Amino acid sequence: MSGLSDSSNIPGVKRPTLRRDASRNARRILDAGRAVLRENPHASADDIARAAGLGIATLYRRFPTRDDLVRSVVWDIFETDIAPALTGAEAEADPRTGLRIAFEAAMRTAAHERVAFPAGMTLEIAQSFLGPASRLIQRGQEQGFLRRDLDPENDTLRLLLMLLSVLPTFSQQSEGWNRYLEFVMEALTLTPREPLPPAEAIVDPFQRA
């Protein structure tokens, strides 16, 4: 019976605590990563571990490389700030309103966070935005609100990347990008004088030979 009096000897008793500790540490690292990278997009893993109040070994047990850490921070930001807005956007009765909400969420988050993405991740994140936004464009076309020569898949992704490209020209707290979002929204809803040239498939710029 003495062996059972010490819970550390019972298989599995410690594991839930360890899992909870690991989960709490991961949350601390992600929160610290978001705060640190917002101020310095090129901050080191040591900087983030220090801000989280954890040792670098603890950080690397969860995130083996800095790129792994940054990718996890970016996905956490997406799931926290952008994904809920996309869900709300698709629930809007007017797809034009929904599309604006979707673009605004992506732009406001990207403007505020300013994380330097690992190679190839900009397109990866943009593609996660693509599904809801392209469905909104399709609805807008079906309802006669948006120009019918838009390619919901290829044009939506390029429009987002085009809008994101203006952010470095503004201060981090500025919402001056709204001017360019308005240009884009008006262009999508105007009756075209001539049809657009054909849309081409997306090419990942980081995968080019």
TrEMBL record:
Keywords: DNA-binding, Transcription, Transcription regulation
Keyword Protein biosynthesis: no
Parts forming coiled coils: none
PROSITE patterns, per the entry: HTH_TETR_2
KW Secreted (keyword) present: no
DNA-binding region (UniProt annotation): 44-63
Pfam families: TetR_N
Taxonomic superkingdom: Bacteria
Domain HTH tetR-type: 23-81
Protein name: TetR/AcrR family transcriptional regulator
Source species: Streptomyces dengpaensis
